[in-house]
Amino acid sequence: MLTSEINRAFRERLETGRALLLPGAANALSARMIEQLGFEGVYLTGAGVTNTDMGIPDLGFLTLGDIERHVSAIRNISNLPIIVDADTGFGNALNVYQTVRSLERVGASAVQLEDQLSPKRCGHFAGKHVIDLAEAKNKIKAAADARVDPNFLIVARTDACATLGFDAAIDRAAAFVEQGADVTFVEAPNTLAQIRKIPQKLHGTPQLINMVVGGKTPILGFDELDRMGFGIVLYANAALQGAILGMQNALSLLKQDGKIDERGPLADFNTRQVLVNKPFYDNQELQYAPDD
Q1: Residue 210: helix, strand or coil by DSSP?
Q2: CA angle 131-136-142, nearest 5°?
Q3: Which of 19, 224, 248, 250 is most deeply packed, by most CB within 10 A?
Q4: What residues contact 18, with CB distance under 8 A and at least 6 apart?
């Protein structure tokens, strides 16, 4: 399927007003699983890529090239819309323009940009700072101007709740809509009252809420968040946290017993091959095999 068709369908899905449950993927393998389980989209998580590729915390170490490589890999194996966490856009407004062009070209459906001061950090870490509103607005405008496909979405995130207060975060999100943002994302609200107010105060534009297990935001059920009026309910790193637990369990058993077999906490061999679509490649090998 062409990315333009994926993007058009994704925009239409968000315009229905029904919330979208969106898991995060740190790589193409987890994106494949997300698609196989029937989710409607995938979020490429910058924190997840940093943790899995580098083994270090989400403190602004990613480059545009790192993200491009993962977007390209996911688009190669999936027809899901991909929202891409592009951190701060890797620089100023000119850098943001190039970031959007590059990520759209390799198959992204949307790009998420935040207003943190570089080097950024995970939205649920302490010590965040945000840039001036005028600069943040210019970066969102550059992102909106850069897109080629009108259905490519700009997701504008603000981390101002932690530094300037909740009301300032709402004001920033509204300002980003005026600059061309299609979805806004007030990161790390820390009370139920704040969560309820986000879609009320920013009515008319889809809102993304990030459910970080162990983070600053209370975890609420999908149906409740849907009724509140959120457009996207994101679990950016639930798959990664589950994978970490799975690796700990499997490797602890291996260390303890000196062996592990099909009775261990493992996906079986065939499940693994189906997940990576080996039957397709087997058929391709037969199709392109030389005649005897």
Answers
A1: strand
A2: 145
A3: 19
A4: 226
d(CA 187, CA 154): 16
Q: Which amino acid is at 130?
A: V
- List helix spans (H) across 15-132: 28-36, 46-49, 64-77, 93-105
180-218 burial, b at 16+ Cβ within 10 Å, e below that, comes to bbbbbbbbbbeeeebbbbbbebbeebbbbbbbbeebbbe
Summarize pLDDT for 122-148 with one digit per residue, the tens. 888 888 999 999 999 999 999 999 999
- Residue 11, phi then psi, degrees to nearest 5: -60, -45
pLDDT digits (tens, 9 = 90+) for 75-118: 999 999 999 999 999 999 999 999 999 999 999 999 999 999 98
| 156 phi/psi in degrees, rounded to 5 | -100, 115
* pTM, 2 dp: 0.96
**Pair 97, 70: CB distance under 8 Å:** no
Distance CA 197, CA 237 (A): 25
Phi then psi for 112, rounded to 5 degrees? -100, 130
